[in-house]
Design a protein that fits this description.
Number of helices: 13
Strand order of the largest sheet: 1-2-6-4-5-3
CATH class of one domain: Alpha Beta
Shape: elongated
Largest sheet: 6 strands, mixed
CATH topology of one domain: Conserved hypothetical protein from pyrococcus furiosus pfu- 392566-001, ParB domain
CATH architecture of one domain: Alpha-Beta Complex
């Protein structure tokens, strides 16, 4: 085999920083779906400016930013302080840069307090061009069913029906329906899961039912959160527990708590029986029964009557203590 044979495919050098790249490596051209050829140039965003200088739009990038927790970014956080193997792709928008591809890398850089490499174009892109470019160059983890649904929800709200959405996105109508259902679960409930990508459509369907039942009963998320907060913290903080097991345990916890809130255990009411009626309204002799407990209550009886009652009770108890 020739030592001079040209390597085919994408290459990276884990020991090479962005500012050491040659001019050829810091410039790249992409052809848009419209046929336009657009130039992108590498920029290194300092750690202190990543959060304020870059931003992500759901309708373009498609990634649910609220789901980018530290737990869900473990794979990138482990390496990003030392190497960012692939640059993000962005479009300049005034003083900021919109990230089309690489929002997980962006979130990881913010969490880790490190800089971010972004290939940026200053050319203006239409919303459709930006959306399709982001879809074409997607290199990160595949979007989950909810993230797809959140993006499709934007199309639905723009006036498209589910059939049109399926055609425009190249998806089956069944998948569009499932994705929209997953997107309909409240973000508050979804936020209880540290790694939301573990959730399947079956899980979303269960959460959607729980969410709906709680809403029908007028039970707030705060009530649910208060009910499970201690147990939830124990599950999430258990580093020995795999993420899929954490997800399953949190689902069970939410399910049990919601059932308890919707159908609280009935409390036994006290049954009161009058033993004797008196003309004096403040004077009474009665028996109170609550579940397996009972008591006798007396008011304003003479000490002589009280003494006789004590004797009678003691005699009865003595006969049954054998």
């Amino acid at each position: 085999m020739s030592k001079n044979r040209r390597t085919i495919g994408r290459q990276f050098n884990s020991q090479t920083n962005a500012d050491e790249n040659s001019a050829a490596e810091t410039t790249q051209y992409f052809t848009l779906n419209s046929g336009r050829r657009v130039k992108f140039t590498l920029e290194v965003i300092p750690a202190s400016e990543v959060e304020k200088k870059t931003f992500v739009r759901q309708e373009t990038n498609g990634r649910d930013q609220s789901a980018l927790t530290k737990e869900s970014l473990k794979d990138i956080l482990r390496t990003i302080k030392f190497n960012q193997f692939f640059a993000c792709i962005g479009v300049r928008n005034g003083e900021q840069i919109e990230i089309l591809d690489g929002s997980r890398r962006r979130a990881s850089a913010i969490h880790a307090g490190t800089g971010l490499n972004v290939m940026v174009t200053s050319d203006q892109l239409s919303t459709e061009e930006a959306r399709l470019l982001a879809k074409d160059i997607q290199t990160a983890k595949e979007h989950n069913i909810r993230e797809i649904g959140l993006r499709l929800m934007i199309l639905k709200n723009s006036g498209l029906n589910q059939k049109d959405i399926a055609l425009s996105e190249g998806l089956s109508q069944a998948k569009v329906t499932r994705a929209l259902q997953a997107a309909s679960v409240s973000q508050e409930i979804i936020s209880l899961f540290p790694v939301q990508s573990e959730l399947s459509f079956t899980d979303y369907k269960l959460l959607m039912e729980i969410d709906s039942n709680l809403s029908e009963k007028g039970i707030s998320f705060l009530s649910l959160n208060d009910e499970i907060s201690n147990s939830l913290h124990q599950i999430i903080s258990d580093d020995e527990r795999p993420e899929d097991v954490k997800k399953a345990d949190i689902l069970k916890l939410i399910q049990r708590a919601s059932l308890s809130l919707i159908n609280p255990p009935s409390k036994d009411k006290s049954v009161i029986t009058q033993l004797l009626n008196f003309s004096d309204k403040d004077k009474f002799a009665r028996k109170r029964v609550k579940g397996r407990n009972f008591s006798y209550e007396f008011s304003r009886l003479s000490k002589e009557v009280q003494h006789e009652l004590d004797q009678a009770i003691n005699e009865v108890l003595a006969r049954h203590s054998m």
